[in-house]
Amino acid sequence: MKKVTTAALAALAALIAAGSLATASAADAQSRYERSDRQEHRQDRREDRRDDRQYARQDDRREWRQDRREDRQEYRQQARAYDRWQRAERRYYASRYQAPRGYRYQQWSYGQRLPSHYSRGYVINDYYRYGLRAPPRGYHYVRNGNDVVLAAVAGGLITAVIGGLFY
Question: CA-CA distances (angstroms) from residue 106 to 39, 79, 115, 125?
């Protein structure tokens, strides 16, 4: 009887163990499934963040390009501020003007060439005093009667005329 009881108990223990193993393996399988599901979810979130960063970088680049484009446009507009012919907003007193020997007062316009005689003694170096912007590199302001001419230093090509700056 002892052998039978031991065998029955062993069989019962085997059954219980098999049931708990089945339950354990089902729970283990479920936890493995949840674990892999969580990993996939984490991976998806990671990829979403990566995509967000990529789009943000693209947006930053796009904004940077737009800013550069606007800066170039603004620079061009400022360069055009040396209009071909402007009327002075404010007038200044200056000493009497005398045309170079052999020349008389002439109203110059955009695209003409200023004779080299005007570059001697008629250049305005204190342009800030008269409310003028700094001339671009290679240019200078030259007084012509009551007007001021922006001309190239090398060839005398006139790029702007500011009329009536002086009394």
Answer: 85, 26, 11, 22
- To which residue do tokens 């316009």 refer? 109
* Structure tokens belonging to residue 142: 């030259």
Of 125, 143, 142, whose CA–CA distance to 134 is shortest?
A: 125
Cβ neighbours around 7 below 10 Å, total: 10
- pLDDT tens track, the chain, 167 positions: 677 677 766 766 666 665 555 555 656 666 666 777 888 888 888 888 887 777 777 778 888 889 999 988 888 777 665 555 677 778 888 888 887 777 777 888 888 999 888 877 789 998 888 888 899 999 999 998 888 999 999 999 998 888 888 88
